[in-house]
Amino acid sequence: MTITPFDPRVLLAESRLGVLATIKADGRPQLSPVQPYFDREAEVLYVSMTEGRAKTANLRRDPRATLEVTSPDGRAWATAEGTATLTGPGTDPRGPEVEALVHYYRSAAGEHPDWDEYRSVMVSDRRVLMRMAVDHVYGEKLG
């Protein structure tokens, strides 16, 4: 029997639900559930968020972030650490800030049924794209 070693990057790439940790002004962690997309080849993690939320404000002040995901059965976990950059919010549905969100959506979920509507909502919701260059990944699979 061949045992395949656990690669936490595989779990990061497969997961569409995780917890993002940012740093509050007082130094304590602030945790938010998010829908991440991990580009394994580029070692970059993406998350769409809204301007004005705690995680967005925290990242504008201190770009260090950590994301953790778990397997559906809870027996494996993976953590990615890195430095985030934020793009947006955009004011033009065809502007570069919204184009970055379109690229994120296509990578994470495929084609949207109405791109014009998506672009409009990204502007009206004041969406921001977090791009985190991952510099450390670790995790474990139990039993």
UniProtKB/TrEMBL annotation:
Residues 11-138 form the Pyridoxamine 5'-phosphate oxidase N-terminal domain. Coiled coil: none annotated. It holds the Pfam family PNPOx_N. The keyword Signal does not apply. GO terms for cellular component: cytosol. Keywords: Oxidoreductase. Residues 72-95 are annotated as: Disordered. GO terms for molecular function: coenzyme F420 binding; oxidoreductase activity, acting on the CH-CH group of donors. This is Pyridoxamine 5'-phosphate oxidase N-terminal domain-containing protein.
